[in-house]
Amino acid sequence: MFRRFHFKNWLFQKEKQSFKPAEKEGIPRRQLTVESTQRLSNIVDRILIEMLEESCPCQYPRFRFLARFSHFKYNARAVFCADTNYFVGAATFRKNFLKRIDTITENYFGDFGGDWIYQCKKCGTKYRHIHIQYSLMFEFVYLVVVEPKYFFFNVGAELKFPVPLLQGLYGFDEEDILKCASEFTLGDEEQVYNYFTEKVQNVVPKVNFSESLLLFSIYSNLRKPLVKLSLEYAPCGDLKWQKISEPVPVKASVRSENLPP
């Protein structure tokens, strides 16, 4: 199923690799095996199923962070995160909550994908799906949010470092991997699952415009709408979280596309 990512080729043709996917001090990664990648695939599926039960992964900052992992951010040469590849693959293929709606560039050689636009079937957030190939056995994918629709409300807990990975980071040069490694650590399946599915508890966003009380209407397409939360909490201020002790009635009628980005 992950033929696009060449993982099967990677696992069974290690003699062709020019980098070592072995454990090394300071680098969060595990030896790639059929068993380890199957465990990663299973835990990613469990995480996305949990996120989709209450809303969608777009409203989880920790998913958004890992899904857009790119070595360019760290001024490093070719490095990829296996966990990111599996999250993106599951989001666009197995769990399929992202629907391909446009093509930027197509791939004309090899087996990997081009650059495409995907849209969340629940909240409408749009992503650019970027697929880069450095060699026959080394390619990676990541997402870039191009049109957010989750606005100021997150279902998932805020980003916290270090981010636990089950499989880890790989690349041609260990110095480049180390440049990307400071925000990550290895975790077991339970740690990874708990980290990515952790939810915000009894908090709401503060925003600095009066119409912010109406932003909860964007959740009308979710399986379990979160509009009920708007009756218990009120946003105010400058995009910070605040606990509200008394319920505040909210009447939401404005369309989500009329809200400021």
Describe this structure in words.
- With 261 residues, this protein is an alpha+beta fold.
- It folds into two domains: 3-197, no CATH class; 204-258, no CATH class.
- It is built from six helices and ten strands, in the order αααβαββββββαβαββ.
- The chain has helices at 7-12, 34-54, 61-67, 82-94, 174-181, 189-197; strands at 79-81, 98-105, 115-120, 126-135, 138-147, 163-165, 169-171, 184-186, 204-205, 241-242.
- Strands 2-3-4-5 form a four-stranded antiparallel β-sheet, with helices on one face. Strands 1-7 form a two-stranded antiparallel sheet.
- β3 (115-120) and β4 form a beta hairpin.
- α2 (34-54) packs across α4 and α2 runs parallel beside α6 (189-197).
- 35% of the residues are buried.
- Mean pLDDT is 75; it is low at 1-21, 206-214 and 218-261.
Classification by helices and strands: alpha+beta
Q: What is the makeup of the main sheet?
A: 4 strands, antiparallel
Mean pLDDT: 75
Radius of gyration: 20 Å
Please tell me what the overall shape is: globular
Distance between the termini: 36 Å
Strand order of the largest sheet: 2-3-4-5
Number of strands: 10
What secondary-structure arrangement, pairings included, does this model have?
Elements: H1 7-12, H2 34-54, H3 61-67, E1 79-81, H4 82-94, E2 98-105, E3 115-120, E4 126-135, E5 138-147, E6 163-165, E7 169-171, H5 174-181, E8 184-186, H6 189-197, E9 204-205, E10 241-242
Parallel strand pairs: 6-8
Antiparallel strand pairs: 1-7, 2-3, 3-4, 4-5, 9-10
